[in-house]
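Handout, page 2. Input:
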Amino acid sequence: MTASAPADILFVPEVAEYLRRSVDSIRWLINTKQLKAAKLGGRVVVRRIDLEKFINDAFADAS
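Output:
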């Protein structure tokens, strides 16, 4: 995790590393509104709670 980011805010590369996906695939998820994100200070960020919801929803759909 980047030292300058709060623990509940993740940058796109951090989300990509966490999900073991490429940065481009995370940007695609954001652009298609599958993963909620916002722009802060010119950088795209994802709240940890939104990432957890994305993961939980994927498991709920798989059941």
